[in-house]
Design goal:
Chain lengths: 300, 272
């Protein structure tokens, strides 16, 4: 604290201060952007050759992945990512939305003060812990109780784990969206004789719709990008998931599993997998940002 | 394409070279000739580090990078000794002297409660190719088989494919994949229908190993070559080893060196 006070005094009494600090901040900001640009360029440089070598259609649409035999088809992994992400939403969206409504609209302030930090804490649990719990409890449960059989390591296990992992994102952003709905909307609705439930479903949710859509999309981004927990429970077989109980491999798992020994074209193909992921998460973030921006314009 | 691959490999080689140069520069003592650099197979690396610890004839620097990188390092001379955990293709071995320093068995493992104790190589191939899907087809209970394999690129998988699958068969796409041999053992220990493979040193009481074609994996059976699911750990030198490299290889092949290997679960090269 002393240091800061002294620094402030120094800044206040020195003439060069403003310019120097401005430049330092600019430099810091630029270094973050530069890192992003460098990473992007590097991934593109490493990954693009193999995509164009095989042809984008053969790479993205190919169904066989066996790099040491020269097969680089990414479609099973794209399908795997799609299945577990949708599965995560099927589980996470109802729970998350219900949680957000309960916390923002229904819960007494004291319960809310207690519960909201706990949900945020959920986001702080390392993903390897989720994966470990999934491997030790969820996978054996699915294998032994599943009437349809299967090894337990499955799209279902990954979906359940991811469904829990996306909850903090969906709940947090949905609460923000619900709280941004002006109080007058609720008052008006109640004054017209609507019940609280009618007010929530008929007035508040529609008004907060864009924010909730953004929450769902950012939750999807979280699910698409998750790696460790998915590797531990999904089984990672390179195949189109025939059922929810079949093992699947996601794009992130594909990179993490094979990176240690990959050389040459194999390594490039993993970078190319990274390009696909990069574009996917860029698109999701872009859509989420746009949806939220629309809401702000509408509210203004 | 080949230009790109070449470029990539060159970058790796340069990196290895710089690393070697740096460690050497940092260690600029008169007895510089006493430093031996090893590079290559990640499977051999931990054992090479154990040998380096026991060796008192000079400094030994162990780097990994994979068998392919090790073969290249031996060719380039960026490492004194290249390490490979697979047999070399004829084109690769040109100009290199191969010294087998130990043998690593690959054990086929199943759940401890599985009554099946032996498989023929053909049955094993059928299971991994996906044509045999139930344990009752090989004398076991009526239970679907959960096939577990290592990831593409793994040296253990490479050796397994070479011996079990051959050039004509591929591991079924429905097989579960994991990148860690410890993790694979755990998966097998939890699933009554599971089958997997790990290096001999990873065997423990959580799982049962199977006899293949009537031979159980054991140190003598691996050393004598009777248990055929094995791979050599090869040290590669450009031409016959000389100086510090020769001295280190001699140590590794000595009784002390081979005892270290056995203590780590490897089979020695000449067990009598």
């Amino acid at each position: 604290m002393m240091m800061i006070a002294r620094a402030r005094r120094w800044v206040a009494t020195t003439h060069l201060s403003d310019g120097v600090i401005e430049r330092c901040l600019l430099f810091a900001a630029l270094s973050a952007v530069t890192t992003l640009v460098l990473i992007t360029l590097f991934i593109l440089r490493e990954g693009l050759p193999v995509i164009f070598d095989r042809g984008p259609m053969a790479f993205l649409g190919g169904v066989k992945w066996a790099p040491s035999r020269g097969h680089f088809g990414l479609l099973p992994m794209i399908a795997g990512t799609a299945v577990v992400t949708l599965g995560a939403l099927v589980i996470g969206l109802p729970l998350g939305l219900a949680g957000a409504i309960a916390l923002a609209e229904l819960a007494p302030p004291r319960a809310r003060r207690l519960l909201k930090p706990m949900i945020e804490l959920l986001a702080g649990i390392p993903s390897v812990v989720y994966g470990f719990i999934g491997m030790e409890i969820l996978v054996p449960f699915i294998r032994e109780r599943g009437t349809l059989g299967g090894p337990g390591y499955s799209a279902l296990a990954a979906s359940i784990i991811l469904g829990i992992m996306v909850l903090p994102t969906i709940i947090g952003i949905s609460i923000d969206a619900l709280e941004a709905v002006p109080r007058s909307y609720r008052d008006g609705s109640r004054a017209l004789g609507a019940t609280q439930w009618q007010t929530i479903t008929g007035v508040v949710l529609p008004a907060a719709r864009n924010g909730i859509v953004a929450a769902v999309i950012l939750g999807m981004g979280r699910a698409v990008g998750e790696t460790m927990a998915v590797i531990m429970v999904a089984g990672n077989a390179v195949q189109f998931p025939g059922s929810l109980l079949a093992p699947v491999r996601t794009l992130t798992a594909n990179i993490a599993l094979e990176m240690s020994y990959a050389t040459g074209a194999h390594a490039q193909a993993l970078f190319a997998t990274g390009i696909v992921l990069f574009i996917l998460s860029l698109a999701l973030n872009g859509i989420a940002g746009r949806v939220r921006a629309v809401r702000k314009v509408a509210a203004a | 394409m080949s230009a790109i691959t070449h470029h990539y490999r060159t970058a790796g080689g340069v990196l290895l070279f710089v690393a070697t140069a740096c460690t050497r520069a940092a260690d600029a003592r008169p007895a510089d000739a006493g430093v031996v650099t090893l590079a290559g197979s990640t499977s051999i690396q931990p054992f090479a580090e154990r040998w380096a610890e026991e060796y008192d004839g000079g400094r030994v620097i162990v780097q990994s990078g994979g068998s392919t990188a090790g073969i290249k390092a031996a060719h380039d001379g960026t490492a004194d000794i290249g390490m490979s955990s697979r047999t070399l293709q004829p084109a690769e071995s040109k100009g290199l002297i191969e010294t087998v320093v130990a043998r690593d068995g690959i054990a086929i493992i199943v759940h401890a409660g599985n009554p099946v104790r032996a498989l023929s190589l053909g049955q094993l191939q059928g299971i991994y190719a996906g044509s045999i899907r139930n344990w009752n087809a090989v004398g076991g209970r009526d239970l679907p088989i959960t096939v577990i394999t290592r990831e593409d690129g793994s040296g253990t998988r490479d050796a397994f494919e070479q011996f079990v699958m051959g050039p004509t068969h591929e591991i079924t796409a429905t097989a579960l994949v994991t990148a860690y041999s410890g993790g694979l053992r755990k998966m097998v220990s939890q699933d009554p229908g599971a089958i997997g493979y790990v290096t001999f040193s990873q065997l423990n009481t959580q799982v049962h190993s199977l006899a293949i074609d009537g031979i159980s994996p054991s140190e003598p059976a691996i050393a004598s070559g009777k248990y055929r699911l094995q791979r050599p750990f090869v040290f590669l030198t450009r031409g016959a080893p000389t100086g510090a490299a020769l001295q280190f290889i001699a140590f590794v092949l000595s009784d002390t060196g081979q005892r270290v290997a056995r203590a780590q679960g490897l089979a020695p090269v000449a067990l009598q």
